[in-house]
Amino acid sequence: MNSEHHQAAPEKLNPWLAIWVRPKETIRYAIENIPMGFITMLVAIVGIFDVLDRAVAKNLGDKIATPFIFLIALVAGPLFGILFWWIGSGIAYIFGKWLGGTGTYKDLRITYGIVNIIYIIGAVVWIPDLLILGSSLFTDYVDGGIATVLWLMISSFLSFVIVVWGFIALLFGVAEAHRFPVWKAFLTIIIPTVILFLFLIFVVFIIALIFVV
After folding, report:
1. pTM summary value
2. Which of 14, 19, 44, 48 could form a Cys-Cys staple with 77, CB 3.0–4.6 A?
């Protein structure tokens, strides 16, 4: 959608609801009305859940106690969340400018931050996850029967939907922040991702070459 068709954000808008169905208007409203302190809080909260998700993926409970996992998440989560938020927003700002975008670094930080509302609401599935699985959520062995396995399938599906929805909202958000079409927002996000992926492959290749020789 071209910049000429951008609609002005309404005077009053609830980002917790609007981000799901009206991401562009929500982003514009956030850029013009929501303080950076609130955005930073969203990023910090999502950082905590991101560390917990990684702990689940790596079966960290097989190595350390569950309370310590939550302590790590509470301490390190906000720090890493804010760090990657700054970096990710900066990359989107630079590549977006390269593609003709007009958004500022602050605009992109607000964009990347407000989209975290989707992930925070999606993190509600952590409640039944913990109630059903307990400490085994962080281990390789899942203690439970068919009902537990069924819930894991439902939980995984819900998490997938949240990730996809969040990415779509981010696409429209970057487009709104930079005042350019969605396809350019897609390139703004994908190009640096591909470059990073290729760089990692190159590094792994060099390391493997060194060890082989």
Report:
1. 0.86
2. 48
165: amino acid identity, one letter: W
